[in-house]
């Protein structure tokens, strides 16, 4: 059942859509600015341990999300020869999880409304466990594809449910921090995955089974833990289960005095019910589109998720090992371990975001993060461009194939079937040649000087990168990017989306924004290599610079601050101005009556 929580006045007329008619009486302005009453009678309450336990088990869903996205790159190195995967199958195996996550993020909206946040999370953890087990015992590529698809179902459901569940249970003063912990678990999952990639990469036969199958352990822990956790109190109130909601609120607030918060949410739900009876049972999606304030909230929430994906985070992580090898690290295993350290940087600076979110607020944190990301992308773009413009030349011919037709290293490595072989004396690059990649060696040329394992002293084989004096810029840009992205643009889209929708639209709003994240994740993954071939690596990063600048302007205009407000207050922030980010004074329950819902308004 859909309900509405942000209206007392409905503006419509069946003939001309212009007549204004009061729907319910205006409530008296008796509510405090903090409906959760965290400071009862002047005494600050202690947050009960139960809230942290609840957030921990919920955030395991974020860990699974991060672990899967982090582990697949290392696992694919072992899966490709094991199952003889061609490029099409590789793309299918990697993309299946993202595609199904996007689809089931949308499915999760009505599912959350119908069966509740707890039930959906239990289903997601059970599905994920089954998918991980299937991957661990896979005997052919069809089983592999099926397992990856099942994982996507679990990740899609969990990624849109967990932030919302935590936000609805958390006290006002901890809501941002606890929801951000979910993103901390995402980056923690990526870090753990990168370490396990390094550990199990030495087992060429069965290492991938351990990489993929071990994901069943945390998902099983979450499944068991959630059997003992309560349903979201706001979902219970919405469905008339007041006694259960009161008990949950008392556990989450650490006090028996929860009647003010309970009554506030209940009043809003009753107003929603009366509105639904008066307007008829309208599809929630259509109701969102016809409600200006909620429509703006969905636009902002989906825009934040879109900007997160098109700001280049996955492509920066994709090139982390290549950037490290450009600095002079020749050993592939060492490059993998150093790349794991970049995931560690991402994790550490997400902790900074957890610390800052309730101190400086969501809006300053995300704007500062995006400005830093913009500067970092400029450094990366300039670094790649200088490396391309000062690329070593091909001065030595060792074959008569397609690779030998290239005149510069940069052109040579753009072809994945070619590599650059050269002699290194100090910092000088001599006798550079472009040679076809070997089919009988794990890393080397098909003929010529680099057709040996190990290579002769002074001979270097560069596959996928060129030697350059500007490698330090790439490394600097990489570290800067992660330092700025991790505390703000990483967690804040999830935190803000868990807060900005009224109760009747919360599940659907989160489903739409989460699906936006996954669909653009898939779009960037599928288009990135094509972009680098069409407009070069540095051209692609300059494109990201332009996108991030537009995103910065959008967030400055459209995003209000939600820090320190109850969920019921936050939903009023998108009333009135279409640019609430530029509004000096946000609506407040203390100083105004409940805002109106305009059906068919602008």
Automatic annotation (TrEMBL):
Q: Which GO terms describe its cellular component?
A: apical plasma membrane
Domain spans labelled Major facilitator superfamily (MFS) profile: 54-563
Under the GO molecular function aspect, what terms does this record hold?
myo-inositol:proton symporter activity
Q: Does the keyword Transport apply?
A: yes
Which top-rank group of organisms is this from?
Answer: Eukaryota
Q: Where is the composition biased (Acidic residues)?
A: 1-11
Endoplasmic reticulum recorded as keyword: no
Question: By its UniProt entry, which Pfam families does this protein fall under?
Answer: Sugar_tr
Bias class Basic and acidic residues marks the residues at: 18-29
Q: Which family does it belong to?
A: Belongs to the major facilitator superfamily. Sugar transporter (TC 2.A.1.1) family.
Q: What is this protein called?
A: Major facilitator superfamily (MFS) profile domain-containing protein
Q: Which organism is it from?
A: Magallana gigas
């Amino acid at each position: 059942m859909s309900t509405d929580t942000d209206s007392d006045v409905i503006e419509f007329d069946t003939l001309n859509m212009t007549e204004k008619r009061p729907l319910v009486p205006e409530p008296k302005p008796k509510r405090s600015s903090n409906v959760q009453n965290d400071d009862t009678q002047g005494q600050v309450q202690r947050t009960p341990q139960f809230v942290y336990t609840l957030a921990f088990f919920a955030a395991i869903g974020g860990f699974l999300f991060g672990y899967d996205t982090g582990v697949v790159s290392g696992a694919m190195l072992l899966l490709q020869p094991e199952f003889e995967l061609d490029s099409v199958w590789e793309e299918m195996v990697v993309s299946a999880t993202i595609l199904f996550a996007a689809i089931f993020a949308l499915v999760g909206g009505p599912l959350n409304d119908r069966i509740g946040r707890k039930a959906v999370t239990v289903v997601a953890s059970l599905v994920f466990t089954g998918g991980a087990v299937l991957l661990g015992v896979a005997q052919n590529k069809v089983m592999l594809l099926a397992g990856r698809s099942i994982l996507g179902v679990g990740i899609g459901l969990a990624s849109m449910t967990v932030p919302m569940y935590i936000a609805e249970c958390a006290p006002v003063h901890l809501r941002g921090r606890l929801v951000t912990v979910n993103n901390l678990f995402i980056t923690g999952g990526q870090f753990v995955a990168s370490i396990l990639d390094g550990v199990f990469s030495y087992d060429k036969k069965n290492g991938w089974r351990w990489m993929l199958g071990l994901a069943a352990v945390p998902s099983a822990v979450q499944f068991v833990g959630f059997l003992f956790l309560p349903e979201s109190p706001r979902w219970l109130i919405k469905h008339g289960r007041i006694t259960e909601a009161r008990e949950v609120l008392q556990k989450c607030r650490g006090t028996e005095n929860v009647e003010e918060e309970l009554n506030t949410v209940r009043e809003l739900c009753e107003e929603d019910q009366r509105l639904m009876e008066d307007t008829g049972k309208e599809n929630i999606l259509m109701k969102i589109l016809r409600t200006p304030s909620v429509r703006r909230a969905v636009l902002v929430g989906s825009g934040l998720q879109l900007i997160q994906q098109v700001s280049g985070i996955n492509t920066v992580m994709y090139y982390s090992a290549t950037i490290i090898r450009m600095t002079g690290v020749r050993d592939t295993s060492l490059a993998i371990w150093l790349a794991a350290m970049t995931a560690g940087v991402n994790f550490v600076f997400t902790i900074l975001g957890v610390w800052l979110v309730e101190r400086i607020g969501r809006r300053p944190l995300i704007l500062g993060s995006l400005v830093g990301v913009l500067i970092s992308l400029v450094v990366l773009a300039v670094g790649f461009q200088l490396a391309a413009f000062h690329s070593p030349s091909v001065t030595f011919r060792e074959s008569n194939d397609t690779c030998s037709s290239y005149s510069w290293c940069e052109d040579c490595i753009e072809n994945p079937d070619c590599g650059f072989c050269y002699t290194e004396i100090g910092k000088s690059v001599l006798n550079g040649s472009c040679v076809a990649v070997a089919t009988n060696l794990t890393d080397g040329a098909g003929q010529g000087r680099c057709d040996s394992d190990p290579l002769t002293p002074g001979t270097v084989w560069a596959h996928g990168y060129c030697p350059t004096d500007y490698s330090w810029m790439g490394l600097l840009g990489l570290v800067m990017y992660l330092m700025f992205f991790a505390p703000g643009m990483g967690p804040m889209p999830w935190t803000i989306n868990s807060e900005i929708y009224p109760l009747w639209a919360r599940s659907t709003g989160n489903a739409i924004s989460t699906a936006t994240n996954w669909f653009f994740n898939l779009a960037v993954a599928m288009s990135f290599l094509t972009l680098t071939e069409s407009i070069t690596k540095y051209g692609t990063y300059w494109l990201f610079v332009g996108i991030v600048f537009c995103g910065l302007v959008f967030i400055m205009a459209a995003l209000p601050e939600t820090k320190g407000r109850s969920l019921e207050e936050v939903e009023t922030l998108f009333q009135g101005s279409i640019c609430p980010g530029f509004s000096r004074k946000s609506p407040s329950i203390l100083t105004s009556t409940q805002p109106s819902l305009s059906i068919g308004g602008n």
